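I'm stuck. Protein, please.
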Amino acid sequence: MSSEATATPGAATDHVDELDVAPEVAAAAAPDREIAVEVGDNIVEVKNLTVKFGGLVALDDVSFTIKRGEILGLIGPNGAGKTTCFNAMTGVYKPTSGDVLLEGKSIKGRKQHSITRLGLARTFQNIRLFGEMTALENVVVGLDARHRTSVVGALLRLPRHIREEKTAIDRGMALLEFVGIASHAGVLARHLPYGFQRRLEIARALATDPKVLCLDEPAAGFNPAEKEELMALIRTIRADGYTVLLIEHDMKLVMGVTDRIVVLEFGRKLADDTPTVIRNDPRVIAAYLGEPEDDVA
């Protein structure tokens, strides 16, 4: 698969084309996922989520939904509570109150690995790869989340372990091809270019076979060309049946790739609407530009 993306020049709301992924590659990278809700129904519900650190309220009674099959953007100025919300949803932080539902079932209070197994996978702002492992090995680590072999079975190399190991290598290669870095499968992660490391993180998250893929500032440190390629990759991921939650500071990227946007400010939800509406919302403009409310009323 080519790692090049085709972009349509123009306004920030222009969409880039999806990456050219052969059907057999997509099928190998993402086998059928059992998802309890239909396309367009709520797959994630964040209900009155509050996170406090001592006397500091980092997230204050935030509610929103993510619909199956959409790309939802979560944006806001620095300190708005975006990453706190992300962390509370994925088990890094324990919410003070409120709830998070995945396919109608509460995941509040569960450990990170448990939430990943249930189908909510994430990347991080700061790259967290195993630098001394190859790109393929990093993806295979993600695939372990779905393996059923016991420690004893792995040590004795029982038939199930051998089958899962072979399947993991095959699917790992398919995922690397899916994100455009298959030719670097044998390269140590720390030797990969920065943009490829970001792609590798996405491949490893996809390896857990998520129902919802959460991307935390995936374009951080990217140049404009790399951002265009990332937009194409995100749209390709959605086209292959994934639901995506995206935190990102780059407004052109967010406006160009999302279906809907939730805006946070000072830990509270400020707006929830389509990119076109959000771009022209006086409250959002004031939040980002610091204009007095009287001037934008």
Summary: The chain is about 35% helix and 20% strand. The two ends are 49 Å apart (CA to CA). Residues 195 and 222 are 7 Å apart (CA to CA).
